[in-house]
Design goal:
Structural class: mainly alpha
Low-confidence stretches: none
Distance between the termini: 30 Å
Strand content: under 5%
Mean pLDDT: 93
Number of domains: 1
Largest sheet: 2 strands, antiparallel
Helix content: 55-70%
């Protein structure tokens, strides 16, 4: 049985901090891509929505930026809630 890399049990504050670091690294990689873009605005928006130019918040795998945003903030809310448990 394969495990889903997206499903993780957060068992410690340190583990939550590690996940936060992974999220920040993915965000930094995507921000770097955005800064380097010289496309016209509509091409940029199309790439952000449909092309895998972003990064999965936890694995770093290619992902469109809209999905990266959705996943990033969902995970951050989950991590914040877990802080209250530790």
């Amino acid at each position: 049985m394969q495990t889903d890399p997206k499903k993780r049990a957060i068992l410690s504050f340190a583990q939550a901090e590690d996940m936060h670091s992974q999220i920040a690294e993915s965000a930094a990689n995507t921000a770097k891509w955005l800064v380097e873009q010289k496309n016209d605005p509509m091409s940029l928006l199309r790439a952000m929505r449909f092309d895998p130019v972003g990064h999965d918040p936890l694995t770093g795998e290619p992902l469109n930026i809209v999905e990266q945003l959705n996943q990033t903030f969902t995970i951050l809310v989950t991590l914040r809630a877990n802080e209250r448990l530790f």
